Amino acid sequence: MIAAKIRWPLYLIILLFTAGCxxxxxxGHALSPSLTGSIQADPINTEQIQNFTRSVRPVNxxxxxxxxxxxxxxxxxxxxxxxxxxxxVIRQAPGHAMAHNAMGYSYDSIKEYQKAQYHYRMAIALxxxxxxxYNNLGFSCILNKDYPAAIEALxxxxxxxxxxxxxxxxxxxxxxxxxxxx
Length: 182
Fold this sequence. Notes:
Elements: E1 5-8, H1 10-18, E2 38-41, H2 46-55, H3 63-75, H4 79-92, H5 97-109, H6 113-126, H7 131-143, H8 147-160, H9 165-178
Parallel strand pairs: 1-2
């Protein structure tokens, strides 16, 4: 059998990706081993991505797919696109704590620390046991040079997940930056 090269529009690739394919942190995503031939995506066009994400209207239960799409954009450092998608998720599900936490991460990545901290605090209000949100809030406070708030948030992250070394390292960094390290 001769392997055919298939050119798939980007929106179909994203649709397949969000429909349950495993994600990967590298740039080569395997779509499906059952497809024959080689698949080539059209070059990424930001306008095409924005048109696609605007056209997707989630059905019940599909907010998580949009959330996953947003986290994919975060991994490829497309934080403004991720923010657009996460804002839509939050509009449809204001209690989506993970979306608030992810939104905070993207705001931190574009150096909008006050907005980031607002969303981390929303995530914490919605899910008080989310250690990751406390850690992210603490790290955002470090970036914003608010060391007392960073220390407080990171201590709470450690209370919730005392085995996490990243939280402990971040707390050490907060103490070091604040001048309280001994």
